[in-house]
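Summary for the funding panel

The consortium committed to producing paired sequence-structure records for every protein in the target list. Below we show the first two records in order, beginning with the earlier of the two.
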Amino acid sequence: MVAKYDREAGFTLLSMLIVVAIIGIIATIAVPKFNSVLASANTAKIQADLSAIDSAIAVYEIDHGHAPASFESLDAYIDTANTKPPKGRYNLRQGTAPQELAEGETYSIRKVDARTRAVCAGHTAEEFGK
């Protein structure tokens, strides 16, 4: 004798479509927010690194009586070999859309308003933010 199943357990096609649609809606909300948070985190790291480098420049100037010639001159004050900007997007205070750091971008120092300052992608610490 063959057993007859009156009601098979399982999901219907309609219920699966509804679940996939809900997951899609949640993803469209979450992904842009995640990207925004990631850009904010990168911006905060860049600001912190540039502030630390600016402090190292100030101490170098006190110790030597002149500004450092290059970023690598600060090696006694900070770990220049491992101080690198994060990969990805960052925010500028100018209200522009998040910018992408160029591949291989590094921190450097240059004269800004007669002072030697740390820069990343041509911007000082005060120019980063939202």
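The next record, for a separate protein in the list, is shown here:
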Amino acid sequence: MGGKFLMPAKFTVVYEDSAGEPGYEMDFEVRNGAPECRAVRISSSADGSEVQRKHLRMLSIDDHLEYAVSAVGMVIRTIDPVSGEITADNARDDAEVDKLIRQGRLARAESHRSLTDDMLREVAEIYRANVDTKPIEAVAAHFDKQHRTAQLYVKRARDAGFLGAALKGKAGER
């Protein structure tokens, strides 16, 4: 995460329930500067209740991600200008916890919005491979996006130079 905060590249949070309900583990990883949930495991204890649909419904990944960010995120206190050594520690108050959570949300929002050059190249390849049928629909299906979003991806691929100019009134490129 950017800004004045640090967090581990990968970490696992274990939630255990003392009332006999199933517990779970969540694996998190910082990818492209944004924290993400990469795995969830739910299991019941030997003498606890079985895992049921209600346990899945109660599991809010976004809420647990924010809790994890606030628990493991570190606030940078100083950076030595000569050695580059960083001094950091846990958030000291609610305001710093809120800043950690906001920084995590911002990083996640930015990572979801960004279309990398590799992704735009892939959009162009899929578009070209399906130009005789329905290229926008093929892009939408490949990325599991709505038609409108696929159109935006194709436009961005054109703007970035991975696809030629559009042919007026039909699929393709010049």
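Regarding this second record: The chain has a mean pLDDT of 84. The chain has two domains: 5-112, 117-159.
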